[in-house]
Design a protein that fits this description.
By secondary structure, the protein is α/β, with parallel strands linked by helices. The protein has helices spanning about 1-5, 25-30, 40-45, 60-75, 115-125, 170-180, 205-210, 240-245, 285-295, 310-320, 345-350, 365-375, 385-390, 395-400, and strands at about 15-20, 45-50, 80-85, 110-115, 135-140, 160-165, 185-195, 220-225, 275-280, 300-305, 330, 335-340, 355, 360-365. It is about 30% helix and about 20% strand.
């Protein structure tokens, strides 16, 4: 690329795409004046950059902040910026607590993959005041103690796309307040997995909480999977009722379905079963594992495959409910496989306030998730002897290099 850009001048060059590039190389490119002369600095209006970490480590907040700063310092007339597309969690950008200080009055369109919701709020704090199109994929939309005061209207924004494939409990507290800042939207696209308190996201909810706040909206595309816990099963909403709430949507092409997963689905006792494999598209809650131990009291091997976060855990956290859960015992378990399970299930089995496991058990785990859950093996409530006993020196050295 050095030879191409430095050999001659390209008067019609207005866009550049950099693919499968590592973060250090990208930062160096935007720091080297040999690549982009003063002419290119004003001439380039479109940039696509796809960061690749080779699956070895997460990008740090400082690296992302530096990259953002260098991009807008290098291209002073940038109108379209696409950082992505990344489908792997550790390739999403995160600014942590040090967002970039860049300001651009020329940027009109931004496509980006972010780690958490507050990273999105950083980018919508007024630094890109002319932004008209914003497409964002966020890995985690979670309630947090961080306080943001950027509540100003995003009056120039005309198109907004939000995608998150992890369950969020922040629909009312985070997503709706952000959408209410976008009163001039003409196009809206939402793809969400939502956990709510004793209600579904139906047509009435969408009309009252979203559509009525956007008088200029022309196109609304949504794929929303909402889950809840109904404690009263006498009057459960039917699929016909959900469809009825959607009947007044203009130019509608809407498909709805509803399914109920009853707490007493698994019952009975199977004394002869020794090996159990669990997979579901729904989350496994603490109460579910309690019923599993009751149904399979002599279970020796348990394989867990589930990438959905525990909804009840998020609900208790959002409501500040410090409920004492009954400790689940697995007296005969000798092998546990969590290698294809989401982080919440590491907490489920490694926290001694939730689960009691035998000392001689063999566990198959993802080291990076173990390190995160145990806070670098210093968390007092985790079974450190169990964790360390299942990691031999070769495994430790291998993962430490990563």
């Amino acid at each position: 690329m050095e030879r191409i850009l430095c050999t001659t001048y390209y008067p019609n060059l207005s866009g550049i795409g950099l693919y499968n590039i590592d973060i250090e190389r990208a930062i160096n490119i935007f720091s080297d004046e040999c690549f982009f002369t003063c002419t290119y600095k004003n001439q380039i209006s479109s940039l696509i950059i796809d960061i690749n970490t080779n699956g070895e480590q997460s990008l740090t907040g400082n690296e992302n902040t530096l990259l953002f700063t260098r991009i807008f310092t290098t291209f002073t007339n940038l109108r379209i910026l696409n950082i992505g597309p990344s489908s792997i969690c550790y390739q999403h950008l995160s600014f942590n607590l040090s967002p970039p200080t860049v300001i651009s009055s020329t940027l009109l369109e931004l496509h980006v993959c972010l780690s958490r919701f507050h990273d999105c709020l950083h980018l919508l704090d007024g630094r890109f005041d002319q932004l008209r199109i914003f497409h964002v994929k966020i890995a985690f939309i979670e309630l947090s103690s961080l306080i943001f005061n950027n509540k100003g209207k995003l009056s120039n924004l005309r198109s907004f796309t939000l995608f998150c494939d992890n369950t969020t409990d922040g629909y009312y507290q985070l997503i709706l307040p952000l959408l209410h800042r976008m009163s001039n939207l003409e196009e809206l696209d939402l793809s969400l997995l939502v956990w709510t308190d004793n209600t579904f996201i139906d047509g009435n909810n969408l009309k009252f909480n979203i559509i009525h706040h956007m008088p200029l909206l022309k196109r609304f595309t949504f794929n929303i999977h909402s889950s809840t816990h109904f404690y009263n099963q006498d009057n459960l909403p039917s699929n016909e009722y959900i469809q009825e709430t959607l009947k007044n949507f203009e130019n509608k092409q809407i498909i709805s379905s509803i399914d109920y997963f009853h707490e007493n689905k698994y019952s009975g006792m199977f004394n002869s079963v020794r090996r159990v494999s669990l997979f579901d598209e729904r989350s496994f809650e603490h109460e579910f594992f309690l019923r599993i131990t009751q149904s399979f009291p002599f279970m020796e091997k348990l394989i867990l495959i589930n990438n959905k976060r525990q909804n009840n855990k998020q609900f208790r956290k959002s409501k500040n409910i410090n409920q004492d859960l009954s400790i689940i015992e697995y007296p005969y378990l000798i092998e546990l496989d969590l290698s294809k399970a989401q982080k919440d299930y590491y907490e489920q089995f490694l926290f001694d306030i939730k689960t009691c496991l035998p000392n001689n058990i063999r566990v198959n785990m993802d080291y990076r998730l173990v390190k995160k859950v145990t806070r670098n093996f210093r968390r007092p409530t985790t079974r450190m002897g169990l964790v360390e006993g299942n990691l031999n020196e070769k495994e430790k050295q291998l993962f430490m290099k990563k």
